[in-house]
Design a protein that fits this description.
The complex is a heterodimer of chains A (about 130) and B (about 425). In chain A, about 35% of the residues lie in helices and about 25% in strands. Chain A is an alpha/beta fold and about 130 residues long. A 6-stranded mixed sheet of chain A has the order 2-1-3-4-6-5, with helices on both faces. In chain B, strand 13 and strand 14 form a beta hairpin. Chain B is built from 10 helices and 14 strands. Chain B is elongated, with a radius of gyration of 34 Å. In chain B, helix 5 runs antiparallel to helix 6, helix 7 packs across helix 9 and helix 9 packs antiparallel against helix 10. In chain B, the strands form 4 sheets. A 5-stranded parallel sheet of chain B has the order 2-1-3-6-7, sandwiched between helices. Chain B has a 5-stranded mixed sheet with strand order 9-11-12-14-13. Classes of the chains: A alpha/beta (about 130), B alpha/beta (about 425). Chains A and B meet through helix 1 of A and helix 5 and helix 6 of B.
């Protein structure tokens, strides 16, 4: 089975490394990390991920700006994006950790790995 | 009762007919304007006259100190007790030095030895005594209003300081919360990583990782509480049935009642008027109070506890001081209110601590069990709703009573919840 490509865009290098190691450890994903949001669009165009994990508060371009760029790109538009943010709290949500809109899903930091993987799988399944 | 009519009403407490006659004679001779002179022949009858409800009370008592049923300062204090606002001038045949001073210290306006009684002196003494007593009364009333205003000012000031402290703490909390979440996320991912890689047989390592994960969850709970505390502005008001919110909140924490051996008694007054609330926020308040009660009763060493939850309808009897002048748009006297009451049979809050319960990070729960942020958030939410929260220890049966007060949205009584 081909591994699914996942791009993590987050300015916190320690966090992206921890997420990358965990996802790679499952054997199911090939993970690329981008710690500078200004390069996010180019990295995504080159890597052509099946799914993007995107931080919200970042120096330079924030998550909203990056999301707008991704959605404006014809090739990247259909790629599902999981927003990972320290801004939401459990009281924002009914389920405890997840806020879902029609297009994007938002997870609150710190996210449980099982929740993250489940969310990735749901989004990838929906893409097919 | 001090009379308000222009006629000076005098009660002479005198058992001697000749002395009473003399007082009457002197008053007539003094050229006193309109007056009425009444007689009581004992302290008991004077007390009865003064205590009887009457629209026109007396202005002054002329008190003889040697009466059949009472003597000296005892007579004076009986009269003062019957009507604290009345002027008393003592008439005495006892020409004793120092007696006058003692009587004035005991509250008499003046004293007159009967041997010195003259028409002009009697009139002057009576007039001065009445005026002096009236001035004292006015002074006392102004003083009391001043003290009350001072108290309200002081309460408002304390409230303002507390609000400002909370606001700055809120801003700080929001910043700290955001910065702490990233490191927590890294730790969480790290623990997840090692949990997946650990040998399933290595129980010690797995237990250590599990307790690390719990610790992250604890820290995260505090951070989430701080975020809640820091953003009280986001609310969406809608007309709601409080009973429905109470039912839903209690259902959501049912497991807490079961695990803490708590019996629930719910008495919801039907057809309550609607209240404008943010549904999610008020559910948060109700859940918080229910969990606090369940946890408090869970510490009863295995004894079953009871939580009684009621809803009631009422009106504001007096505006609570704690609302302060800054929040004058909140509950006012005679506003119609819906009250939600939680009464538990737990140990209550230690009396010396009860004023601290709304302070952030104050908790009576053991370390790791409570963040101490719940009630400060609850209070903030109630303030956003222009309502209030009141907490007190109660007896028979012992426990804690918490009341949430919501202002009714519409004065239109037809607008009932169906």
């Amino acid at each position: 089975m081909t591994k699914k490509r996942i791009l993590i865009i987050d300015d916190d290098a320690a966090l992206t490394m921890a997420v990358r190691l965990n996802l790679e450890d499952t054997g199911r994903y090939e993970v690329m990390v981008e710690n500078q949001s200004i390069h996010a669009l180019n990295t995504a165009r080159e890597f052509l991920p099946h799914l993007i994990i995107l931080d919200v508060i970042m120096p330079g371009k924030d998550g909203g700006d990056v999301l707008a760029e991704l959605k404006a790109d014809r090739a990247l538009k259909p790629v599902p994006v999981i927003m990972l943010t320290a801004l939401v709290s459990k009281t924002d949500t009914n389920t405890g950790t997840v806020v879902e809109s029609d297009e994007e899903v938002m997870l609150a930091k710190p996210v449980d790995l099982d929740v993250l993987i489940q969310c990735i799988e749901d989004r990838l399944a929906g893409q097919l | 009762m001090t009379g308000s009519s222009p006629v000076l009403r005098i009660l002479c407490v005198e058992d001697s007919p000749s002395d009473f006659h003399l007082v009457g004679q002197h008053l007539r001779d003094s050229g006193a304007p309109a007056y009425e002179l009444h007689q009581a022949t004992s302290v008991r009858s004077a007390v009865e006259i003064l205590s009887a409800p009457s629209e026109t009370g007396f202005d002054i008592v002329l008190l003889d100190l040697t009466l059949p049923d009472s003597e000296g300062t005892t007579s004076l204090s009986a009269i003062q007790q019957a009507d604290p606002s009345i002027a008393v001038t003592v008439l005495t045949g006892l020409d004793e030095k120092g007696l006058g001073i003692r009587l004035i210290k005991a509250g008499a306006q003046d004293f007159l030895p009967k041997s010195e009684l003259r028409p002009e002196l009697l009139l002057r003494t009576i007039t001065h005594a009445v005026e002096r007593k009236r001035s004292q009364g006015e002074l006392r009333s102004v003083n009391s209003k001043l003290a009350s205003a001072n108290q309200r000012l002081s309460d408002a000031e304390k409230h303002l300081i507390q609000s400002e402290k909370l606001e700055s703490l809120g801003r700080l909390a929001a910043g700290v919360a955001h910065e702490v979440k990233n490191p927590l996320a890294i730790l969480q991912m790290g623990v997840d990583f090692f949990q997946r890689r650990s040998d399933a047989e290595d129980k010690t390592a797995l237990a250590m990782l599990s307790s690390m994960k719990d610790a992250i969850e604890r820290a995260n709970t505090i951070v989430l509480g701080m975020v809640d505390l820091s953003r009280p502005a986001e609310t969406e008001f809608a007309n709601e049935d409080i009973n429905e919110l109470v039912r839903k909140a209690l259902e959501m924490v049912r497991h807490e009642f079961i695990s803490n051996n708590v019996t629930l008694q719910v008495e919801l007054l039907e057809n309550l008027p609607i209240v404008a609330v943010d549904r999610n926020r008020i559910e948060q308040v109700l859940i918080n109070l229910a969990i606090n009660a369940a946890h408090a009763m869970g510490e009863l060493d295995g004894h079953a506890g009871t939580l009684r939850v009621r809803t009631m309808l009422g009106e504001v009897q007096h505006s609570p001081h704690e609302e302060g002048s800054r929040h004058f748009d909140r509950l006012r006297q005679r506003d119609e209110i819906v009250v939600v009451e939680f009464r538990d049979s737990g140990p209550g809050i230690p009396p010396d601590k009860i004023h601290q319960v709304y302070e952030p990070f104050f908790t009576t729960k053991p370390t790791g069990k409570g963040t101490g942020l719940g009630l400060s958030v609850v209070k903030g939410i109630m303030q956003q709703h222009k309502g209030s929260i009141h907490m007190e220890n109660v007896e028979n049966p012992r426990g804690l009573r918490v009341r949430l007060i919501f202002k009714v949205t519409s004065q239109d009584h037809l607008a009932k919840v169906t």
